[in-house]
Structures are given as structure tokens and as C-alpha cells.
Amino acid sequence: MLPFAELHLHLEGTLEPDMVFELAERNRIALPWQDVDDLRSRYEYGCLQDFLDVYYANMAVLRTEADFAELTDAYLARAAASGVVRAEVFFDLQAHTARGVPAPVALAGVADALARSEADHGVSSGLIVTFLRHLPAADAERAYAEALTTGVDLLGIGLCSSEIGFPAMPFAPLYARARADGLHTVAHAGEEGGPEYVWEALETLGAERIDHGITALRDPSLVEHLVRNRIPLTVCPLSNVRLKAVPDLAAHPLPAMLDAGIVACVNSDDPAYFGGYLDANLAAVRRDLALSDDQLATLAANSIEASFLPASEKTRLKQAALVS
Ligand code: HPA
Ligand code: ZN
């Protein structure tokens, strides 16, 4: 199996319907859904916001440190079975503190599972706290300061949630601060918004990686910039289909990205909501986009290059990919 890094994965997006109901019962939370089938019937989305509404509603069941640890551990086990050897996972801290879950509780659960990921699953890991761009930047700044006080080790920060109409500019001071604190920076951009959103994430936030970026190909000068600077795009094919960012998988720009020389890699985004984990995404692009073995190996190598692993570890993993 080729070794992959998964770099665009929201931990809350791995909350499977069965776990939603299990945790609701354990924590005595009333859900707006009758049963698992009723919940699954809500997994048809016209756009990003339709998905986000269900995604945030289901998070209500996550209350205790153990809940967050179980969620994280279940993802790591599933990711390892998909060939993931490195996971740099997103966590929407504000979505939990806004519901009254203390930051130290939520972060300790996630951090506890991540600390065991190498030993338990053979997956090295890092934590990226993602801030919600539909909320004021001052909220994000408060959440960041709170995250730091917990002492939990952070790999980086990111920006996600609703895109169109929510500029990245107000988050520029937060990104500057995180960079000064030695953290990596990524940002969702160009999922529903056009290439100007990708430019904004690069130029005002200084993001090192762009999450999604599928509209980048509409701007040749942006493509040239991404290629020249080897700025990776963390692409999520099944997510793009389910959120109608592309008409169908056969129309996905992934092959064009590879042909252009962009460091694109494949990820699962919110696998419990979009039809599968990394292995399902890879199988789907292989089938519907007729990707060759060489292109698949490029995707694996790109994912390792795009990770925030030390250079020596990237070299080791890329060599492992060549002999697998
Ligand atoms: N886009 C933006 N925000 C998100 C997503 C996404 O695909 N998944 C979870 N939060
Ligand atoms: Zn995402």
C-alpha cells in the first residue's frame, strides 16, 4: 500500500451516524433526528452551507474528554487502514467552546488520542486548530489564546466554515501571531469562492497550504504561482461532488492540476458525511478520472511533500513509496 499523508480532515467530520446516536444516549442529548436512517437522509446537500448546518448540529453530542478521544481514535484506526501514515488533523475548537465545552476538555481528549497514534496505529500526527470564518476574528483570537493556555501541542492553525462573503483579511493579525509563535498556517479557500479567495489566503494570511483550491485553475497566473512556489492544494474529491462544487467526479480538475505540476494531494475532508475515507476517495478518482499508477504514486508523494514533517522524514517516506 502506498503511504499517504492526510492533510485535510476535520475530526468532527468523522463523527459517524451510529456514533452520533451512541453519544447522544450516553450524554442524554436530544437530537433533532428520529433515528440513524432519518439522519442519513439529511446527507444530501445543495451547497456547503447545507452540510455545515448538519455538521454543527451533530457536534452537540460531543461533551466529555473521552468523547473527543474516542472520536479521534476511531478516525486514526480507519485512516491507518486506508494507508495513512501521517495525519495533520483539523479541529473546530470554537464550535465546542461556543456550546459550553471547556477548551481544555475538548483539546485534552483529542491530544490524548493523537499522542498514542504512532504506537496504536502506526500513524504520526499533528493538530491544526481551525477557526470559523463566519464568526468575528476577535472570537478566533480569543479561542487561539485559550488553546495556547491549555499547553496542548499545536502544529498549526487553519480557517474553515462558510466561504463566500466572509473575507480572510480580518484574520491576518491572528495568522501573523501564530506564525510568530512558530506554528504552521493553512486555510480553506477556492472551494465555492473563486481564485480571488485563494489569492487572499496566500497574500493576506500567508497560508502555506490551501485547502481545496479547486477554482484555482480558472486563473493561469495563480496556477503559475502555485507551481513555482510549490504551494500545495489539499483536494477532497468526494466532498467536492457531494457539496456540488463540481457537477460530477468525471469533471473534477484533479488531473488538470497534476498535469499543470501543482502539488495536489487527495484527502477525505468529512468522511462520515461525504461517502468515505481516504481509500474511498482514491478508489473513486482512480475509477472516474482513470488515474494511472504513476499518477497515484505522484499523489502519494505530493501528500508527503505537502505535510509539515521534517525533511528527513519526508525523504524516508517517499523512498518507502517508491518500493511499495
Ligand atoms: N469547507 C469549509 N468548512 C468546513 C468543511 C469544508 O469542506 N468541512 C468542515 N468544515
Ligand atoms: Zn475542509
Give an account of the 3D structure.
With 324 residues, this protein is an alpha/beta fold. The protein has a single domain, classed as Metal-dependent hydrolases (TIM Barrel, Alpha-Beta Barrel), CATH 3.20.20.140. Helices cover 50% and strands 13% of the residues. The chain contains 17 helices and 8 strands. It has an 8-stranded parallel sheet with strand order 1-2-3-4-5-6-7-8. Helix 9 (172-180) links the parallel strand 4 (156-160) and strand 5. The model has no long low-confidence stretch (mean pLDDT 97).
Structural class: alpha/beta
Radius of gyration: 18 Å
Measured by DSSP, the beta-strand proportion falls in 5-15%
Q: Give the strand order, joined by hyphens, for the main sheet.
A: 1-2-3-4-5-6-7-8
**Quick one: overall form?**
globular
Q: Please trace the helix and strand order, writing H or E for each element.
A: EHHHHEHHHEHEHEHEHEHHEHHHH
Number of domains: 1
Helix content: 40-55%
Bound molecules: hypoxanthine, zinc ion
Number of strands: 8
Q: Are there runs of 5+ residues with pLDDT below 50, and where?
A: none
Instruction: Tell me the number of helical segments per DSSP (H or I, 4 or more residues long).
Output: 17
In angstroms, what separates the terminal alpha carbons? 6 Å
Which CATH architecture? Alpha-Beta Barrel
Outline the fold blueprint:
Blueprint: E1 4-6, H1 17-26, H2 36-41, H3 48-58, H4 65-81, E2 84-91, H5 93-97, H6 103-115, H7 117-121, E3 124-132, H8 137-150, E4 156-160, H9 172-180, E5 184-189, H10 195-203, E6 209-212, H11 220-228, E7 233-235, H12 237-242, H13 254-260, E8 264-266, H14 271-274, H15 278-288, H16 293-306, H17 311-323
Parallel strand pairs: 1-2, 2-3, 3-4, 4-5, 5-6, 6-7, 7-8
Helix pairs in contact: 4-6, 6-8, 16-17
The structure holds hypoxanthine and zinc ion.
